[in-house]
Amino acid sequence: MVLHGRTAVVTGAGRGLGRVEALELARLGANVIVNDYGQPGRDGSGEASAAPAEQVAAEIRAAGGEATAHLGDVADFDTARALVELAVERYGALDILVNNAGILRDRMVFSMSEDEWDAVLRVHLKGHFNMTRFAAAHWRERSKAAGAPVHGRIVNTSSEAFLAGSAGQPNYAAAKGGIVGLTTSTAAALGKYGVTANAICPRARTRMTEDVFAGFGEPGEGEPDPLAPEHVAPLVGYLAGPAAERVNGQVFVVHGGFVALLERPKVAAQFDTAKDVFTYEELDAVLSPYFADRAPEENFAATEVLGLKRR
């Protein structure tokens, strides 16, 4: 019960990854506010419904935990503010924020509409920002009032799509890359208040990823599924807890029996000129040979980056 007495908000917790993350935090002792907008379509379509969040909250209470369901769109600035305020009013404080809510509107970049772009960035990236903004203000105020650091934990949900390119998801890949930038900036800003911010890139078979992982790593009869979302939840629980107080600004890839820590981007090669400025001809002379043996798509082979194999 390492999170006993702590309060967590998990967004998009009515299904899939968010659900198992909420259940894990409750198992570790946290009070959990289960947020979900409850729309039936993974593209954000359909009528909002409180049922998914209420069902997960009921699961937590049935297991002896404490949970509150919340229906709301975290991409709305005022809704995000109200969600943090709910945690404070109901449980006295907010200690843990797990940003998970998202939608998909896949399309090749040459066919994507403005609405398909805006909607995905709104839910993923703006939703992460909205919740982070009000949670950060809460922790800063608490820390200044106490004259000491507080227990504040942010776990953001990125994706290897930001690394691998994900050809049919330019909106999703851009949003997930933005979430990494938001995470590292937040980590730098809030560390002095005792707050950590980290991101996970989960590989999990959920409603959101049913197309991405179709045919990848599917278990045989009677075998455990390495891409079951339950494999991701323990890392979220760890990052939310006291043992991870020195883990800050990091990005992890996680799936069944596997946790990988990503490095910050490093310089792969350096090219210099004896002059102050390169000429076109000089750049051609040094850069073109470097890339001569590579087909353009080789640098963005998603299956190679993901390390996945079809069964």
UniProtKB/TrEMBL annotation:
In this chain the Ketoreductase domain maps to 6-232
**What is this protein identified as?**
3-oxoacyl-ACP reductase
Fetch the InterPro entries from UniProt.
Answer: KR_dom, NAD(P)-bd_dom_sf, Peroxisomal_Beta-Oxidation, Sc_DH/Rdtase_CS, SDR_fam
Alphabetically sorted, this entry's keywords are: Oxidoreductase
Q: What is stated as this protein's family in its record?
A: Belongs to the short-chain dehydrogenases/reductases (SDR) family.
What is the scientific name of the source organism? Streptomyces olivaceiscleroticus
Which PROSITE patterns does this entry report, sorted A to Z?
ADH_SHORT
The residue ranges crossing the membrane are none
What Pfam families does its record include? Answer: adh_short
- Record's signal peptide: none
